[in-house]
Design brief:
Blueprint (H helix, E strand, L loop, with lengths): L3 H19 L6 H8 L3 H7 L3 H27 L6 H13 L5 H13 L3 H24 L5 H22 L4 H18 L7
Helix pairs in contact: 1-2, 1-4, 1-6, 2-3, 4-7, 5-9, 6-7, 7-8, 8-9
Length: about 200
């Protein structure tokens, strides 16, 4: 017998898959029931409205992301890091974001959050976790004011991943190379002006 928490999780996972495949507009109770392998009544029992479904899906995604990236940030708080370690960390982060329909869903939900103020807090929590990881790594690399540039780094990563999803091109190496150029430039800038 499936427990209610398992059924709820299957529904949320189905919603994320559907959003990734067909966008928010593709989310219907019948489709969710089919993809989740649950009865139609289970969907409406656990979630009274479509907005409830979308919020729960966004919160689930955010919870997973904040835990994952929070753990990576803790692992990175060693006080110092070399570029080789950072390259591996960036590769790990980038490779946990596969270019498939499941990873399109968060972008759809972020856009939907722009229309639904109740989702904006969840989206903000997720970006805070991304920023914290970026600031931790940048600080370990000796980048000054890392917390001020962390959002830019996160924006670059998100933009590169969105570009790869939209075009079907781009690799983790492209992302890593771009980030390394930024980090090296920021670290060099902290050494002060150079004499001609």
């Amino acid at each position: 017998m499936t427990r209610p928490a398992e059924t709820r999780q299957r529904i949320i996972s189905a919603v994320l898959r559907i959003i990734g495949d067909d966008g928010v507009a593709g989310v219907t109770n019948r489709r969710i029931a089919q993809v989740a392998g649950v009865s139609l009544g289970s969907v409406t029992y656990h979630f009274a409205t479509q907005q409830d479904l979308l919020r729960a899906s966004m919160l689930h995604f955010v919870d997973c992301e904040t835990r994952h990236f929070g753990e990576l940030a803790k692992q990175s708080q060693t006080g110092s890091a070399d570029l080789e370690k950072v390259v591996e960390l960036v590769r790990e982060v980038a490779n946990t974001v596969p270019q498939d329909s499941e990873r399109i869903a968060p972008y759809e939900l972020y856009l939907h959050a722009g229309r639904d103020p109740e989702l904006q807090d969840a989206a903000s929590d997720c970006f805070t976790a991304y920023d914290k990881l970026a600031a931790t790594v940048l600080t370990a690399l000796g980048v000054p004011d890392a917390d001020k540039v962390a959002g830019v780094v996160v924006g670059l990563i998100m933009g590169m991943k969105l570009r790869a999803l939209a075009t079907g091109s781009g690799t983790t190496d492209d992302l890593v190379d771009g980030l390394l150029m930024l980090v090296k430039g920021a670290a060099a800038g902290s050494e002060g002006p150079r004499n001609p």
